Amino acid sequence: MFAPVRRSLALAASRGGRQVLLSARSQRPLSIPRVRTAAYSTTPRLRQEAFHSQLENAAPLPSAKSATQTPQTLTEKIVQRYSVGLAPGKTVKSGDYVTLAPHHCMTHDNSWPVAMKFMSIGASKIHDNRQVVMTLDHDVQNKSEANLKKYRQIEEFAGKHGVDFYPAGRGIGHQIMVEEGYAWPGTVTVASDSHSNMYGGVGCLGTPMVRTDAASIWATGRTWWQIPPIAKVTLTGILPPGVTGKDVIVALCGLFNNDDVLNHAIEFTGSEETMRSLSIDDRLAIANMTTEWGALSGLFPIDSVLQQWLRAKATTAAMFNPEAAKGKFTHEKIDDLINNQLRADPGATYAKSLYLNLSTLSPFVAGPNSVKVATPLKDLEAQDIKLNKAYLVSCTNSRASDIAAAANVFREVAKDGVIPKVAEGVKFYIAAASTLEQAAAEEAGDWQVLLAAGAEPLPSGCGPCIGLGTGLLEPGEVGISASNRNFKGRMGSTDAKAYLASPEVVAASALKGKIAGPGWYQKPEGVEKVIIGEGNGDVVQDKAMSIEEALDKLIAQADSMIASAEKEFSGDEAAAAESAAEAETLTEILPGFPEKIEGEIVFCDADNINTDGIYPGKYTYQDNVTTEKMAEVCMENYDKEFGQVAKEGDILVSGFNFGCGSSREQAATAILAKKIPLVVSGSFGNIFSRNSINNALMGVEVPRLVQRLRETFKADGEGNKVLTRRTGWKLVWDVRRSKVTVTEGEGGQQWSQKVGELPPNVQEIIARGGLEKWVKSQIEA
């Protein structure tokens, strides 16, 4: 009886909202589509004033006449192209599960473990050898017979299957994917490495997969993916002199540091003027470190800056090395890209919108030992932080332009043509992202300048960034690096401190022996703080969207109130019974799968425990590590006492964003080796969740439990807390009822909460011992 009333209220409210929008936007046509933003936001709206220039350029909302189908984001459009088996007319959107046939799939030193998985599932031929790329880049300094044997096995396997192969020393895989044209704009390209996000710098949707997924792609050409919630990051203003793309992403990680984009796909956007201030190398650095920001991709638009970069690559290839280009960079391909250019539709739905005014940014430094701590360089300079080591390495910032920036720091202070040396007691390590980038730096004389300054060259590869080879941080040392990840223990000792900064700040710090800049930053007049916030950075447009959101909430509240009244006054017992049934929906349990998992809670009280903390990087590429050794080193980079505190059968509980960081599967298998059957957290990093399912480790998110543990087991008066604690609390996960029950100690409070379902198809994968064994069983069947 109330349904017509509800519809009338909603229609009237929406019409009113459009009238308010009309007033707020100063004479816009009424036929505009409604734009919904921040649907998944859990953070308070930040509001800071914008520059006047931004107020003059408010982008108009699109006309409804141009919308012929559901508007899509750029991410959704690219996924649409590379999804297979879609129903006719299906338009993919965020949240959809799709079967992806990626344009390319790259594996690196993990190629042999992937090959072992590939062969163990019964596959004998790669489905499409043009889809697969193999690079050797992580442990290239390791000359042990075991590592050299693995490298030979990978090269032989690639040769047997006709796969494109790049040997150790040729470059870091992600750089090769970009410079060789595999990561092509408008495509989906994946890699079994967490920094696949980097491909977004050239308009390619890059996202990480894990080893088991890579084996599936080799065998079938496809894998599964759920389209994440999509966040729009609007960049306004332009970069001031002395500020780089590295400063942009370090600031984003440190200023939006409450998991704002955790497990999101990011799309960067901005005016043509703004985007022209970001070179492709800047974009690659930003996209690369969206991984550390918690995102699954970081996509830049296919714009004029990218087109010019592609044209230069095509011209160079045609003039100097047409055969080696293999047709990857041609003007014909670029023409096709431009003629069929993909861009986000007006009115596309984003889960949240954030903005950063580049004009207000200054050089930033991340750390120590966290990307979520970002400090203006000037504040750290005042602290006189002495250094032991500096690094210009990694796929993030060791391209020719980065090497040139570092070299110019030394050139500027040279006297009578003599290049000054790095500070006494400081070691400065350099490694180019690829041999092509090193050759360009050598041709410009930049590489030689750094060598003259006393820098120690390393082969092109990951090296110290992943904690392998020469130059790792020793206990008590302080290092600064142009790489992407400074997690505790990643670059050496857990008792060292690591900072991240731009190449010029790293070089200046090496020169001065302490964290310092080259003095290139020119502060714009009137800028006193970094301007960030939720929305698009346009006050008028954001105000209109805020009104829309408020109206949406009012309509939803009215719907809820009317629905409750309908139930109360209609005497609809069937509706009540249906509601009760929904509350107690039971999950089917496969024969032999446990209906309940229970154990004592061991609490690791920290957020953002990363895969380096769970399983140290120095063991990641040792393929002969025993199960016993994996159990022994599990969580040692987080807490050396974990192995003594945690026992077989315990339930591991941690804070939020557990398992962020790299794509290593051992983060899951090491916990299983410790014979811990279940991990509970406030939230998980997406790639860890994927690895857990693929390797038969169960996980469930219970934010309330984390809150209760922190309320009960607080830090002492000096802020110290126990890293790993036996709590005496018991947890029971009732898989059939999708419910956890917690008993807070002997005779303590007991409470229950509904949690996510563990459906039969996932149960089957876990029961089989993981995805690899499940695929094998399907092939055998």
Task: Describe this structure as you would to a colleague.
The chain is an alpha/beta fold. It has 29 helices and 27 strands. The strands form 6 sheets. Strands 24-23-22-21-25-26-27 form a 7-stranded mixed beta sheet, sandwiched between helices. Strands 5-4-3-6-7 form a 5-stranded parallel beta sheet, sandwiched between helices. Strands 11-10-9-12-20 form a 5-stranded mixed beta sheet. α4 (111-120) packs across α7. The longest helix has 32 residues, at 539-570. The radius of gyration is 27 Å and the shape is globular. It is found in: Mitochondrion. Pathway: Amino-acid biosynthesis; L-lysine biosynthesis via AAA pathway; L-alpha-aminoadipate from 2-oxoglutarate: step 3/5.
List keywords for this structure.
781 residues, alpha/beta, Aconitase, domain 3, Aconitase, domain 4, 7-stranded mixed sheet, 29 helices, globular, disordered N terminus, iron, IPM_dehydratase_rel_enz, mitochondrion, lyase
